[in-house]
Amino acid sequence: MNQKSVLITGCSAGGIGHALAKEFHSRGLRVIATARRLESMIELEALGMTVLMLDVSEIDSIRKVRDEVALLTGEKLDILINNAGQALPVAVTDLDLTEVRALFEVNFFGPMTMVKEFMPLLLTSSDARIVQTGSIGGIIPVPFNAAYNASKAALHAFANVLRVELAPFENIKVINLVTGAVKTNIAKPMLLPNNSLYKPMEPAYLEKRTQLSQVNTTPTSEYAQHVVTEVLKSNPRAWFWTAKMSFVAWFVDTFVPINFVLPMMAKEYGLVDFASRISSSLIQVPRNKKNVLITGCSAGGIGHALAKEFHKKGHHVFASARQLDSMVELKDLGITVLELDVTEIESVREARDKISALTGGTLDILVNNAYRPKQVLPNIMPVTDMDMDTARGLFEVNLYGAITMVQQFVQLLTASGDGRVAQLGSVAGIFPMPFSAPYSASKAATHALSNTMSVELVPFKFVVLVTGGVQSNISRQMHLPDNSLYKSVEHILREKRVGVSQVGAMPTADYAERVVNELLKPKPRAWLWLGKNSLLCWLFDRFLWKTALDGMMARMFGLLELSALVKG
Hints:
It is a single chain. The chain has 20 helices and 14 strands. By secondary structure, the protein is an alpha/beta fold. It folds into two domains: 5-255, Rossmann fold (3-Layer(aba) Sandwich), CATH 3.40.50.720; 287-472 and 483-567, 3-Layer(aba) Sandwich (Rossmann fold). The strands form two sheets. A seven-stranded parallel sheet has the order 3-2-1-4-5-6-7, with helices on both faces. Helix 4 packs antiparallel against helix 14, helix 11 (302-312) packs across helix 17 (508-519) and helix 14 packs parallel to helix 15. The two termini are 28 Å apart. The relative contact order is 0.10.
């Protein structure tokens, strides 16, 4: 009865999960190994492990396994390892959003759903662990890997938020595995599409992918030994960097500014020479009056202020939003307003064609600022209470919408000769903001996507706007369900949450002025930190360890009060 139980997803032969299952089993734990196909776990079953069929992208499959595990273990689970994963080694401009969504269902939404569904069993354990198999891809912008990089960045952010939210429950520890190069079958190279911008460099691309997947990698058995040893410690590290290249990734993330990392990665993958060939074919025609497209320009928001600032400086602004009546003021100023829903491909293409006709086929600046409209924004919510469909809605706008916009406007940006793209990021994508896991994860994914695009599309200039507190209409109140773990301190959490997000926030006009000035520079910064406490956040990010702010975040968001109640 005292035997610890561990549930591992993604245990197919040849992968990390398979090796982890064998290592935990060798140390006497009760292992429940799962995968989508039972025949991929024949060896594990022969060793005496329990094997169950599980597809983490299907809620019914997860709940069926949850019920089976509850029966097997007496309603208790000690260790949950979210390891199931997919790769998609494709350039941003070649991505199929159907495949991107499928990847995120496994790599991100699957782990989030697993945590939600298995939380009652984990709370029963006196010493539980939630382990997320992350990757250095979520830290370092490996080109031709944008969707995977973004999904792992999202997973890291999710683990950060979860760790702080669960701080009052001292029996559960959350571990982020930042996995380096491991010899598995997930990183196999694939041929580039015939119409890809990168088809001429396919041989070099395939060689590099093969090197990543096979050369200078850590065997899965060795990786598993290190991970299991760490997980079973009484006080495991919250961020555990392991396998080949993980130390290099840690060093670069900790000490090397992003402005140096991006060109370094482009050179490593042969993209600088490729970019030179593209740049030589571009006609550089300096224009004082830039063509600027901004998404999410509804009144009261950041996009609205950006449109006014660009217009004030004499540029041709295309302001867009889902509803034209939300941009009446901009239209009255003489700004061109467009109806645009970034989640609908036909809407994006229609806007692209209109802009192309009006500008002669060029676009100088694209600002991806669209956000989920207020009436359908998910409530600020703990992970354990989050509705997964509303969480997916955030990614439709914040990530998938940004991908669509870049794909559809890349030709117009190329024709500009000096195209640049700004992505609205957030400090929430870097620091563990409790009760904002989907939003934080979507912004972390956006940061990773932008970094990868900066490497792949070297001739363009990508700017991540790491936004702190700015006055806007995006923030909402918290309303917890009656059965929430946090219901007893809801009034405290609500008060703290509002104070953190809007009190002392930077006016949108001030924010817009500084962003526009940066984007119009000949060489804008790759990351621009702006808004309330953004400088402080930059200092913390550069000079403190990953978990340094956990205690402060718990105090800021009222979690210490809950901790006292739990202990009582």
